[in-house]
Amino acid sequence: xIAQGGALLLSESRLRHNVRLFRQRLAPRVKxxxxxxxxxxxxxxxxxxxxxxxxxxxxLCVYSLAEALAAAAIxxxxxxxxxxxxxxxxxxxxxxPWPPAWLQDERIRITLTDESSARRLAAQLAxxxxxxxxxxxxxxxxxxxRHGVAADDAPRLLDCIARLPPLxxxxxxxxxxHGEEPDHPACRRQLEIFLERTDRFxxxxxxxxxxxxxxxGSWHWPEAxxxxxxxxxxxxxxxxxxxxxxxxxxxxxxLVAPIxxxxxRPRGVGxxxxxxxxxARPSRLAVVPVGYADGYPRALSNRAEALVxxxxxxxxxxxxxxxSVLDVTDVAVEIGDVVTLVDNDPASPLCLDRxxxxxxxxxxxxxTGFGPRLVRRxx
Length: 379
Fold this sequence. Notes:
Layout: E1 7-10, H1 12-25, E2 31-35, H2 37-41, H3 45-48, H4 52-55, E3 59-62, H5 65-74, E4 80-85, E5 108-112, H6 115-127, E6 134-141, E7 149-150, H7 154-162, E8 167-173, H8 185-204, E9 209-213, H9 215-220, E10 228-231, E11 253-258, E12 261-265, E13 270-271, E14 277-278, E15 283-288, E16 305-308, E17 311-316, E18 324-327, E19 338-342, H10 352-358, H11 363-368, E20 375-378
């Protein structure tokens, strides 16, 4: 029986290798957090997250509270930080029914970025006699201009939270704007601002967790006096920037699919929607059941290659929602042969970072676009 779709093959050994690379660059006291938002960057939260504690990861970081709950359901022990800020301007809106599910799991930490939300949250916890101080982190905007309390307002917010008994100020964090670029002056200044605004609190509370680093920042600024780093794209072996590659990263995922159909066609036949490709000779065409709904981008139409039986063959015609077509005229193939559409060799033109360049985008976007129909399997 021929499989009806593609498979994302995930290498546990490569995942561990990537964690070790970062661990070796950082001081032993620095804890490692893994960013597993967006379904572990498309690789599969259910497949990746349970492997991380044994690989040396001590924290999980996600974007939303819904993602935090999903991560909590399949992992044990590790704290989980939801980095999207909790905003409470209408005190009743998010609390129906009370208490929210995430409050029931002591591992989940939330992010606050404004005093009003902190006070409303503390008041609601006190009113309902919540049995423990709720650990919170504060995000500070030092120059990315996205989420976060303004740097000049951060000390006041930190003081406010520290005086609210239902809350426990556990951590403060920021995000670098140019973490993928070594020695970028913006990063240096952002780190300086972050440390200046938080040093007083760190002195008073040595247990306060300060974290600012993404994959690129962890690699290029390993000496920064921080307590935790957040490994995102580098954990999966993809590059924060092809202009400044991180040495020896190993991509974790490869995308494979079977040949589901073979067609012999004469010269002059159009292939796929819009006949973007016309056969220039008698040709043998292979259909594989992976398309843009699976995260194989339409922008690769008539531009990418695939690997089958050790040979690279062109992807021809328009990539459709569910299928792609290969010109296998020069290779002896059969129905059921396995085709590699995304290679886990970082030097291959089929690796995700290089395919992203063909699409004028970045590996992050292609990885997070891997669709739910793909079977995800550790190998």
